[in-house]
Amino acid sequence: MDVLLLGASGRIGHRIADELLARDHSVTGVSRSGTVDDVDDADFVAVEGDATDAGDVAKLATGHDAVASALGPSDDESPDRLVDMITATIEGLRRASVDRLVWTGGAGGLYVDSETLLVDTDDFPEEWEPIASAAIDAYDRLADVDDLAWTYLAPAALIEPGERTGEYRTADRELVADEDGESYISMEDFAVALADELESGDGVRTYVGTGY
Ligand SMILES: NC(=O)c1ccc[n+]([C@@H]2O[C@H](COP(=O)([O-])OP(=O)(O)OC[C@H]3O[C@@H](n4cnc5c(N)ncnc54)[C@H](OP(=O)(O)O)[C@@H]3O)[C@@H](O)[C@H]2O)c1
Predict the structure, then answer these.
(1) Residues 184-195: pLDDT tens digits?
(2) From atom 25 of ligand 1, which residue's Cα is the shortest distance away?
(3) Which of these, 15, 26, 36, 29, lies nearest to 65 by C-alpha position?
(4) Is 114 touching ligand 1 by the criterion CB < 6 Å?
(5) Is residue 49 a contact partner of residue 86, using CB atoms and an 8 Å limit?
(6) What CATH number is attached to the domain comprising 136?
(7) At 91, is the pLDDT very low, low, confident or very high (cuts 50, 70, 90)?
């Protein structure tokens, strides 16, 4: 598969690039600078682009089989830039006639029980609320889209650099937690889940949670 990867220079994006390349996919990795450090593979090319610009996304996406995103706003930007990014990405795919999008989303909009979202739980860290709300707003943009085969794939509540075990669980619109109630996934295993979703299409038009 020829994949356009938005956010390839980021912490999660970098691991998605590694996972896709290990599966012999071709990856065009987008960042604002046009550089992606430490990915050295004949099937990888780094390109410059602004994911808040639908014209840029359309130009870059053209000719690819699918678009994956691990986009996130920089610390010095408003979390709401995420909504600009998903809006431009949706429009860019339409203009490029690329149908498949797997978006790295947020866990905040996943249900922890039948009526409570993770973001609304008492223990949810206050400092994460702005980006969690922006990620839910981004999901709302995607939820309205019925002409693209999108998947909104959310990490567990906690995602960190770690080990690639190849093991993980998913749940539709629900937080995935272990028997002790801990919701965690390594960035490496999240990349496995994203690559599996790209290849299988099991979660088309679904908000999917991941974790152990
Ligand atoms: N538990 C959770 O729900 C959870 C936890 C962590 C992360 N996340 C989500 O996962 C996503 C990725 O997280 P991360 O930690 O990997 O983020 P990150 O390291 O900050 O990476 C963000 C990526 O987005 C790119 N980017 C930002 N603005 C751009 C623009 N206008 N045009 C093109 N590229 C742009 C950056 O590239 P350059 O800066 O190089 O241009 C970088 O590659 C985020 O949406 C984050 O909210 C969710």
Answers:
(1) 999 999 999 999
(2) 7
(3) 26
(4) no
(5) no
(6) 3.40.50.720
(7) very high
Contact between 34 and 8 (Cβ < 8 Å): no
Q: pLDDT tens, 95-106?
A: 999 999 999 999
Residue holding tokens 């691990």? 70
| End-to-end Cα, the chain, rounded Å | 27
Number of compact structural domains in the chain? 1
The Å distance, Cα 34 to ligand 1 centre, comes to: 15
Q: pLDDT tens digits for 35-84?
A: 999 998 999 999 999 999 999 999 999 999 999 999 999 999 999 999 99
Q: For 122-173, how does the pLDDT look when each residue is reduced to its tens digit (9 = 90+)?
A: 999 999 999 999 999 999 999 999 999 999 999 999 999 999 999 999 999 9
Q: What are the strands, taking DSSP E only, across the chain?
A: 2-6, 26-31, 44-48, 66-69, 100-104, 149-154, 158-160, 169-172, 184-186, 206-211
How far apart, in whole angstroms, are the C-alpha atoms of residue 104 and residue 148? 16
Pocket flag, ligand 1, residue 9 (CB < 6 Å): yes
**Which structural domain range is residue 123 located in?**
2-211
Average pLDDT, rounded, for the chain: 98
